[in-house]
Structure to design on (453 residues):
């Protein structure tokens, strides 16, 4: 069941995102919340004029998951947060290809453990988990290229 | 490509240029993509294609469409980021014929895997309301993945038999019914569709399509428009379905429409001349049938 976030809840979520990713996200549209009683809560972004009165399987796009207070954006969520996020890691195109094929990559620079927005030039690739000099891959299976790359 | 006799006899009666039609079907499908302007502009994708030395050219009837005339692998980082959708060039036409606007209330009744849904969302600039329906549970998953990848945030996905939309009386401004069909148009990428073809099968599909079009029409607001399309050739699945609707709904009007840059042919029967047939030999595409129907006020009601 989806629940529309109230204005203050939306504002608070955006504030949390901006704090966590050191970004200046501003966004139009509704935020909808799902699985509120579970450990991981999913947030959807819906930009339609109004929610249609039909029994829905899915509404809008998955924007982020909130797990134990940590906000983990989807690729699309990361693309919104994207370019303004200071908490990001810049990769070259070869590394981007590895990330999008579902592989871990070495960290180009040392970072504190946690989630970072992954960028390659102007492209936002989604999110990666920095851990012990590696970026642990977070690309969903459904979004990985089928091309195989050797681990670098 | 094995052609069964029943198929040949049927289509020779249908098309005076049957031999050209079959010759075109024997050619491999020409690759094409649609730039997803919800995420990037066309220049970004062109820059990527140039970097990969891909031969590409614009599709004349779709401003965001590009032919890819090289062996370049299209499953790329850019594809997975949602910058472009790998889509047959003729399947871009129904969404263009629907002509959705940002504030519209639109239904895509048989939406999976989502090529037209995401195209419609793009034309609506992620505004208005777009309901994408798919009856099959498995195909809903593919639909959702493609909606997400495209960043199509004005879409609501439903899973129900399209016939069930009859109860949503007068709800939508525009409805796209890209109906399940015998898929002959896709023979260039899957020749099995010709082996599967039979008169019995097209009659069964025609019955389903008639139920679906009645439901789609019913869900339409007065003044609204319905695009009926299939990627197949038989009269039973195309012109007969339109004639059925025009007979059942006196206020339904078949409207002429044009897609600039595309060579089209008229519908095959007197009552369906305003519908459009797209032949593979005319534009190097799949076969397609598209009809635009307007719901008007019934003056006799």
């Amino acid at each position: 069941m989806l629940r529309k976030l109230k204005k203050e809840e939306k504002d608070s979520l955006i504030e949390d995102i901006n704090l966590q990713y050191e970004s200046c996200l501003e966004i139009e549209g509704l935020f909808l919340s799902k699985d509120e009683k579970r450990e991981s809560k999913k947030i959807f972004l819906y930009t339609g004029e109004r929610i249609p009165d039909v029994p829905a399987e899915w509404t809008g796009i998955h924007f982020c998951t909130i797990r134990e207070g940590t906000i983990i954006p989807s690729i699309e969520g990361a693309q919104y947060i994207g370019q303004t996020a200071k908490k990001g890691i810049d990769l070259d195109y070869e590394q981007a290809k590895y990330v999008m094929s579902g592989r871990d990559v070495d960290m180009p620079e040392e970072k504190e453990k946690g989630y970072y927005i992954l960028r390659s030039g102007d492209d936002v690739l989604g999110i990666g988990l920095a851990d012990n000099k590696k970026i642990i891959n977070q690309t969903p299976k459904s979004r990985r290229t089928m091309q195989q790359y050797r681990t670098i | 490509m094995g052609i069964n006799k029943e198929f040949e006899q049927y289509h020779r009666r249908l098309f005076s240029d049957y031999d050209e039609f079959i010759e075109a079907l024997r050619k491999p499908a020409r690759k094409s993509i649609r730039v997803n302007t919800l995420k990037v502009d066309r220049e970004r994708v062109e820059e990527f294609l140039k970097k990969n030395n891909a031969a590409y050219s614009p599709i004349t009837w779709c401003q965001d469409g590009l032919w890819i005339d090289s062996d370049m692998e299209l499953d790329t980082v850019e594809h997975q980021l949602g910058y472009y959708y790998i889509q047959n060039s003729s399947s871009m036409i129904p969404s263009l014929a629907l002509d959705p606007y940002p504030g519209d209330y639109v239904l895509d009744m048989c939406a999976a895997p989502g090529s037209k849904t995401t195209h419609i969302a793009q034309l609506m600039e992620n505004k208005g309301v777009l309901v994408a329906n798919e009856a099959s549970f498995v195909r809903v998953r593919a639909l959702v993945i493609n909606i997400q990848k495209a960043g199509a945030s004005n879409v609501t996905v439903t899973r129900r038999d399209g016939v069930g939309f009859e109860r949503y009386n007068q709800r939508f401004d525009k409805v796209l019914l890209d109906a399940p069909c015998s898929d002959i148009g896709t023979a260039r990428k899957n020749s099995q569709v010709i082996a599967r073809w039979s008169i019995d099968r097209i009659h069964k599909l025609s019955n389903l399509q008639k139920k679906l079009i009645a439901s789609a029409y019913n869900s339409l607001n007065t003044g609204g428009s319905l695009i009926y399309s299939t990627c197949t050739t038989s009269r039973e699945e195309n012109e007969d379905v339109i004639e059925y609707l025009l007979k059942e709904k006196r206020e339904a009007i078949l409207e002429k429409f044009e897609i600039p840059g595309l060579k089209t042919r008229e519908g095959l029967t007197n009552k369906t001349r305003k519908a459009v047939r797209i032949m593979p030999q005319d534009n190097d595409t799949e076969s397609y049938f598209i009809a635009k129907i307007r719901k008007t006020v019934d003056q006799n009601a």
Summary: The two ends of chain B are 52 Å apart (CA to CA).
